[in-house]
Design a protein that fits this description.
The complex is a heteropentamer, with 1 copy of chain A (283 residues), 2 copies of chain B (271 residues), 1 copy of chain C (302 residues) and 1 copy of chain D (310 residues). Chain A has 283 residues and is mainly α. Chain A is built from 11 helices and 1 strand; from the N terminus they run H-H-H-H-H-H-H-H-H-E-H-H. Chain A has one domain: Orthogonal Bundle (MetI-like fold), CATH 1.10.3720.10. Helices cover 74% and strands 1% of the residues of chain A. With 271 residues, chain B is of the alpha/beta class. In chain B, the strands form 2 sheets. Chain B has a 6-stranded mixed beta sheet with strand order 7-8-9-4-10-11, with helices on both faces. In chain B, strands 3-2-5-6 form a 4-stranded antiparallel beta sheet, with helices on one face. Chain C has 2 domains: 51 residues; 237 residues, MetI-like fold (Orthogonal Bundle), CATH 1.10.3720. In chain C, 73% of the residues lie in helices and 1% in strands. Chain C is built from 12 helices and 2 strands. Classes of the chains: A mainly alpha (283), B alpha/beta (271), C mainly alpha (302), D alpha/beta (310). Chains C and E meet through helix 7 and helix 8 of C and helix 3, strand 7, helix 4 and helix 7 of E. Strand 1 of chain A pairs antiparallel with strand 2 of chain D, so a sheet runs across the interface. Bound molecules: adenosine-5'-triphosphate (2 copies) and magnesium ion (2 copies). One adenosine-5'-triphosphate (ATP) sits at the interface of chains B and E.
């Protein structure tokens, strides 16, 4: 034999090559997207844009109320969806055993993942806006988006929890920890990177959604920022959506792109917190 | 070059064990199935308090399984079915609403494969006391140091308590798991081959520890090492294919076993 | 004293554990509740719809034209449209996503992973409207150079863009699943002289298959339910063709059309939104039942 | 339109309507409905907000029908509409005890556009348009319509059948609402009609006047029966595809909500001017504006009866 | 009751080992650091072909680390730095473009902690041959059966080859891992405490296997069990704190060690 001969691994080389290509495709798509946004946004994206209210004059148009709306919205969605989603995942993985109810709930959750966002809008309208009398408030919007992203949080948390080796649970139970102690101190910290991934992906989805918010009647344009959770609100994708439909080119391209750029910045800021947490816990 | 003399280690009387005055654990007609596999078959035995009981037998005979029934760690495996009773401290732990957490705090366990938490060395040992409500920092430090010393690991790790437990060598991990179990001061300590990955020095320290523990604790130990069983235990149970073949004082079992099968097994190696 | 281990129902520790279990169950129950409410939300108007349009016509008709004469409510073209987008996006995202996750988890060094993974996750957060425009203004023109006969609005570019959108869902979740496979197992493979390719495909991927399949389900589900991007990019022509170069209309696009257009509530066209929603629900339910069955057959536990 | 002009103008307006004692308005107004009227309401809200900084105005575009669905439940104050309320919507209001008043605020002219370089066409008759867009035997080549037109494929772009623009066009051109050929490219974003038409010499499309006006350099509007869409021809009704735009106001809300009252008043006061022109529609004539104001005052005085359709 | 006599096992001459005619592996001035920790310090030793070399030493002394350097399994741990050379079959495996897969096929390894794949028993053993291109079903069946027999596991699992390897007992898992390593027929087999979780019967079968293997293969074995080292190996290396203290013929090392430290260690337990 000759351990020096490396030709045996041609297959491996090709495989790696394909993997790199695949990864590049994703990165390149993003680069193109961001590049085209940046190109259109230059000249429009400035402090005034961030701090102004919308206007029918492109030069004056700003996104402040929608920006604040989106930030509030994301905070609320995170606060609602994290405990609810992780709680559900814990129940399913640690408590439900192999029961029938577990199968039903799991089936149900993956089914909810495929429900179109517009249907969540209809649900939010009927449930939060009308039945619970919240009106077109931030909280109604946040709850609607929470339901929308819940399946992603649940399924990804479940997978993360499932991947925690059983020997660690054994170790914890073996010294007399209760179930909850084991979950809280061993399972959740171990699963946290995966849980954070789910949270990142789902909050990302929530921050870019338009249809359900339009359905519940959130404003496509607001001229003042929300000042509480029961306040009327707009959100960035709605404002962007409105601009993109305007007849003037300056709106469709410049102003809308500036909005998209800001949305991406907010998204990245939001994600980096989660990413920091994820990296800290990743082995 | 030393000669290993098991005879010397087996001092004591040779009466067969039927029952004890005051067993801490009393196993009766225990059967266990993994799905279809009948892994434990009508096991009846009493475990004396403040003594060391060794469990020996060929690989796959059910030693770990039996050990896990004693603190209900088998609850965690799906498709396990258990019949019979195990009385611990006067209570059948398979009947009614049992507080398994308290049971396991009192009947602690060291597993066959070392399973440290992916945390620091310190956190591994402090985990148990914290779970049971010890939060005082100095108290914790004390417990960690004492447990690591007892597990013969302190000298090797005292300078890197904050390092990850996952970077320890195999034997170090095993000792860490022992320290972790000791830190909660169980009444009964179940040890599944605690010394298998240990070198003679560490092993002898652990054996010394077991002798020490015996004063206040009950120890049940699974081992493949006949000498170890002989040296360390007071009573020995020999399992084979899920059945308890023989259970008697260690000296008796090693010197003058009742069953042919026992004799074959213990001599099979050294005869 | 001798009942020390017996759980007393008033024991605070026990109460706490029970309370936690109930709380967690309530969380899980929310998802059931949501389903019930969704069905309730859709059912009322859907029933209205079915009083005007027979369910048979709806399910078997091959012409969808709710607000253009002659009115016709055959949902099949929408179903094929949705199917087409789903298939195209899956064909794009599944191989790319898995390949990316394999690369990040098994090949890339830590620094690359730490950068590329979050970068790709940004793709999940781009507003879907933006994706729609990206398809129209970038992907379609590129496709035009390859297929000159392609329509301005077409299933292919919409499918591709949805594939890009769901890519991070698949790549990130699969990557998590793969990187939580214990290193012991990889060691076991390498020690046998397996190449990285062998270990990755023969050990790591099978051991994390549950997570990988979950990521497919989530990703493809999003593709099925995706609304805005396809509404903008795939056109609004409900036709039964399976030619990806033509305009199509998906079920979700039809729903938006009704919801954001000027059609009056209470008309059959408006109520059709709810009927489509319900049908989509039933279809995905069937698909999920199949995938749950498949998944239960491929679980490896370590 | 440049910014300086706008500043002057908003000062004018504050002089106009700042004469009330109710200086500190702080309530909220909820506007929903047609995406066609949306730019108008948006602009009105923007200007109104400049005078009353504490007011919260929420303007949403979820379509005329979607908006009415909420309006008939009393959830919104104002519903923008690119078509009159339908009898069923009107009946829903009646059932729910919602009294409403209709204001026609502006006029749109649906413009038929072709490529800048399409020299072969400049004006068509309504009948020819009907032939091109109608459902029966739709022509595949331009030469099928008129032999002198090019022997090239017909490429058509239009709004979706769910839009009010489509309804209006089909009713007024094809002759029957919702009746149209189906083989054309539809989009709910009019900008893509422009893009399509700009890209091909054989293309034709129709869309709102605002979109044409913004793209006079990119596409060419053709005359219908000889009349081209201009502010003039649309406002005097000469242009055959002049389409009124409305908003509907909930009367109960109007009476209870001072902010809404001021907003509607502001809306009407500005219906004749620059704001409407800036967003690309044709403003109301002075006399029409007076009618609107009278209607508003009558509503406030209680001299108004809702005329539910059936 | 048997007496264990190490002396008997240590037949052979007592020459100290410096170098062999034809070592299959030649380690020179090997140093290894985990980050800051200097885990192997200037190790120089030659491993003779078709002989059994045992590595002994206290827990944490670097035995596993050393073993892993021999087939470059340490490549997989981040922050490892290696200096020195290891010549296998005439090639320095730490230099230039080495095909580590082929290296590892030839220098196989059994790990300290059993690490079966989460697959069926059959698939675990068949994995290696499949990876190396054996696809013929009957051939595979043969290999699997032979390897499991050699690892003394066949009788226990022959009826459930399709069961998950994860459900095996600790010792069964360990034997499965041995079978898995045997199935690729390496030239050198590195075994990290292969027998620690085994009962005497299985252990003796593995030892018989090692004797058998010696005819065609080279074996390097880490063990804590002095008797085992004595029984099974031809040469023994004693490590301490990352250094090679003594390396000589097994008999010599156990009977008449050169270094005090060696003597203390091997007698520490039994003296
Ligand atoms: N991945 C790692 N990172 C940092 N230090 C490590 C790592 N692996 C091992 N070490 C340290 O290197 C030293 C040698 O470890 P090694 O595993 O080689 O010991 P060993 O001789 O095999 O011990 P044992 O008999 O307990 O298995 C130990 O002090 C250990 O803590
Ligand atoms: N989770 C399980 N599912 C099915 N069978 C199991 C499971 N765990 C153990 N077994 C089987 O039950 C029997 C007893 O296993 P156990 O782990 O108790 O053996 P052991 O005596 O501890 O052996 P060792 O010395 O090898 O650790 C074995 O045949 C084993 O294969
Ligand atoms: Mg065991
Ligand atoms: Mg080791």
């Amino acid at each position: 034999m000759d351990v020096r001969s490396n030709k045996g691994d041609l297959k491996g080389q090709i495989f790696l090559f394909l993997l790199v290509i695949a990864t590049c495709v994703g990165v390149a798509s993003l680069a193109i997207l961001v590049y085209s946004v940046l190109e259109d946004a230059t000249g429009w994206f400035d402090l005034a844009f961030i701090f102004n209210s919308p206007s029918r004059f492109p030069e004056e148009a700003g996104i402040y109320p929608a920006l604040i709306g989106s930030i509030y919205l994301m905070l609320l969605v995170a606060v609602f969806s994290f405990p609810l989603g992780v709680g559900t995942a814990i129940y399913l993985e640690e408590y439900a055993g192999q029961s029938r109810i577990k199968n039903i709930i799991e089936l149900n959750i993956s089914n909810l993942a495929a429900v179109p966002s517009i249907v969540y809008g209809l649900l939010g309208l009927a449930l939060f806006v009308r039945a619970l009398n919240m009106g077109r408030s931030l909280i109604a919007g946040a709850l609607t988006l929470t339901l929308l992203i819940l399946p992603i949080v649940i399924v990804s948390s479940q997978e993360a929890i499932r991947a925690v080796p059983d020997s660690l649970r054994d170790a914890s139970y073996g010294i007399g920890s209760t179930k909850w102690q084991t979950i809280r101190k061993i399972v959740i910290p171990e699963a946290l990177p995966g849980i954070m991934t789910g949270t990142i992906l789902s909050l990302s989805r929530a921050i870019g959604e338009t249809a359900p918010l339009i359905m519940i009647g959130a404003a496509t344009s607001m001229y003042s920022a929300p000042d509480g959770i029961f306040s009327l609100f707009s959100a960035m994708p709605l404002q962007i959506y409105a601009w993109v439909g305007q007849p003037q080119y300056a709106f469709q391209e410049g102003v809308a792109s500036a909005g998209i750029l800001l949305l991406l910045i907010v998204l990245l800021t939001m994600n980096s917190v989660a990413i920091l947490i994820r990296n800290r816990f990743q082995r | 070059m030393p000669n290993i003399n098991v005879e010397e280690a087996l001092a004591g009387d040779s009466a067969n064990v039927k029952s004890f005055n005051n067993p801490i654990i009393d196993v009766e007609n225990l059967n266990l199935w993994y799905g279809e596999t009948h892994a434990l078959n009508e096991i009846t035995l009493e475990i004396p308090e403040k003594q060391v009981t060794a469990i020996i037998g060929p690989s796959g005979c059910g030693k770990s399984t039996f050990l896990r029934t004693l603190n209900r760690m088998n609850d965690r495996i799906p498709n396990v079915r258990i019949e019979g009773s195990i009385i611990y401290d006067g209570i059948n732990i398979y009947e009614g609403d049992i507080d398994v957490a308290t049971l396991r705090k009192e009947v602690g366990m060291v597993f066959q494969k070392p399973n440290p938490f992916p945390k620091s060395i310190y956190e591994n040992v402090a985990y148990g006391p914290k779970v049971h409500g010890v939060n005082d920092k100095t108290k914790l430090n004390e417990v960690v140091e004492k447990s690591l010393k007892n597990a013969a690991l302190w000298d090797e790790v005292k300078d890197r308590l904050d390092a990850s437990a996952m970077d320890l060598s195999g034997g170090q991990q095993q000792r860490l798991c022992i320290a972790r179990a000791l830190a909660v001061e169980p009444k009964v300590l179940l040890m599944d081959e605690p010394a298998s990955a240990l070198d003679p020095v560490a092993m002898s320290k652990i054996e010394d520890l077991i002798h020490e523990l015996k004063k206040n604790y009950t120890v049940v130990i699974v081992t493949h090492n006949m000498q170890e069983a002989a040296r360390v235990s007071d009573y020995t149970a020999f399992f084979h294919l899920g059945e308890l073949i023989e259970y008697s004082k260690t000296k008796k079992l090693f010197e003058n076993p009742d069953k042919r099968m026992t004799e074959e097994y213990i001599t099979g190696r050294f005869g | 004293m001798d009942n020390r281990l017996k759980i007393k129902r008033t024991n605070p520790k026990v109460l706490k554990e029970r309370a936690i279990k109930s709380a967690l169950f309530s969380c899980a129950f929310v998802s059931l509740l949501v389903t019930i409410l969704i069905i309730a939300t859709l059912l009322g108007d859907a029933i209205n719809f079915f009083t005007e349009v027979s369910i048979v016509e709806f399910l078997t008709g091959t012409n969808w034209s709710p607000s253009m004469k002659p009115y016709s409510f055959g949902v099949l073209p929408l179903v094929t449209g949705t199917l087409m987008i789903t298939v195209i996006s899956a064909v794009v995202a599944v191989p790319l996503g898995v390949a990316t996750s394999v690369y990040l988890s098994e090949y890339a060094d830590k620094k690359v992973r730490k950068v590329v993974k979050p970068v790709l996750e940004v793709l999940a957060g781009i507003p879907t409207v933006v994706y729609g425009f990206f398809a129209l203004t970038f992907i379609t023109p590129v496709l035009q150079t390859i297929f000159p006969e392609i329509s301005l609005y077409n299933a292919l570019s919409a499918g591709i863009v949805v594939g890009i959108m769901i890519l991070p869902m698949i790549s990130s979740l699969s990557e998590d699943a793969m990187s939580s496979v214990p290193d012991d197992l990889r060691d076991g493979g390498y020690a046998l002289g397996a190449s990285k390719f062998n270990v990755t495909t023969g050990i790591v991927v099978p051991a994390s298959i549950s997570g990988i399949l979950s990521s497919f389900i989530l990703g493809i589900s999003r593709a099925i339910g995706e609304t805005m991007a396809v509404t903008i990019a795939a056109g609004r022509l409900a036709n039964m063709s399976v030619d990806p170069l033509k305009s199509i209309e998906t079920m979700t696009a039809a729903m938006v059309e009704v919801a954001e257009g000027d059609i009056a509530a209470g008309t059959a066209a408006y109520d059709s939104l709810f009927a489509i929603g319900l049908l989509l629900f039933v279809i995905t339910l069937a698909m999920n039942m199949v995938s749950q069955y498949l998944k239960s057959r491929y679980k490896e536990k370590y | 339109s440049d910014t300086g002009q706008n500043d002057d103008q908003s000062q004018d307006q504050s002089a106009d309507s700042g004469n009330g004692e109710n200086q500190q308005l702080s309530g909220q107004v909820i506007v929903d409905g047609s995406s066609t009227v949306y730019p108008v309401s948006q602009a009105m809200a923007e200007e109104f907000k400049k005078q009353h900084s504490e007011v919260k105005a929420s303007v949403t575009s979820s379509g005329t029908g979607g908006g009415f669905k909420k309006f008939v439940q009393g959830e919104t104050d104002i519903n923008d509409a690119s078509r009159p309320i339908t009898p069923s919507e009107s009946q829903k209001c009646k059932e729910n005890g919602i009294e409403y008043v209709e204001f026609k605020v502006a006029t749109d002219g649906i413009s038929v556009v072709v490529n800048q370089n399409a020299n072969w066409i400049d004006s068509v008759s309504k009948d020819t348009l009907a032939e091109i867009w109608g459902p029966e035997n739709p022509p595949q080549k331009w030469s099928d319509v008129k032999s002198e037109w090019p022997d090239k494929n017909v490429e058509l772009y239009g709004p979706t059948s769910a839009s009010g623009t489509f309804d209006f066009f089909t009713e007024n051109i094809v002759g029957e609402e919702d009746s149209s050929r189906t083989d054309y490219q539809t989009t709910e974003n009019d900008n893509f009609i422009i893009k399509g038409v700009k890209g091909s010499e054989n293309a034709m499309g129709y869309l709102g006047y605002a979109y044409y006006q913004q793209n006079e350099d990119n596409v060419k509007a053709i005359g219908i029966n000889g009349v081209k869409p201009t502010v003039e021809s649309i406002s005097n009704g000469e242009y055959p595809l002049s389409r009124p735009l409305y908003f509907y106001v909930n009367i109960d809300h109007l009476k209870e909500n001072e902010t809404l009252r001021e907003f509607v008043k502001f809306y009407i006061e500005n219906a004749d001017g620059e704001i409407i022109r800036q967003v690309g529609y044709v403003p109301a004539t002075e006399s029409h504006q007076n009618d609107l104001m009278n209607k508003f005052e009558n509503v406030m005085d209680g001299n108004y009866e809702v005329n539910y359709k059936s």
